Description:
- It is a single chain.
- The protein is of the alpha+beta class.
- Helix content is about 45%, strand content about 15%.
- The chain has one domain (about 1-70).
- The chain is built from two helices and four strands.
- The strands form two sheets. The protein has a two-stranded antiparallel sheet.
- A hairpin with a 2-residue loop joins strand 3 and strand 4.
- The relative contact order is 0.12.
- Zinc ion (ZN) binds near residues 39, 41, 42 and 61.
Amino acid sequence: MKYLVLLLIVVGGIWWIRQQRRPHTHTNKPSGPQVMVPCAHCGTHTPESDAVRGTQGTYCSAAHRDAHEG
Ligand SMILES: [Zn+2]
């Protein structure tokens, strides 16, 4: 009976830890605010994930990349 109580405490502890960790493992997005990068052509700040990368920097759109880099 003594070991059964101990087992319940251990299982309960593991369950509690899993409950605490769940919110962190549920979100796959990186922590912190979205990184904004300026357009090398017009200076507009665009989220890094949406920015167009060129040889001379990052741009808000492919049109500005083409206009800036020729
Ligand atoms: Zn631009």
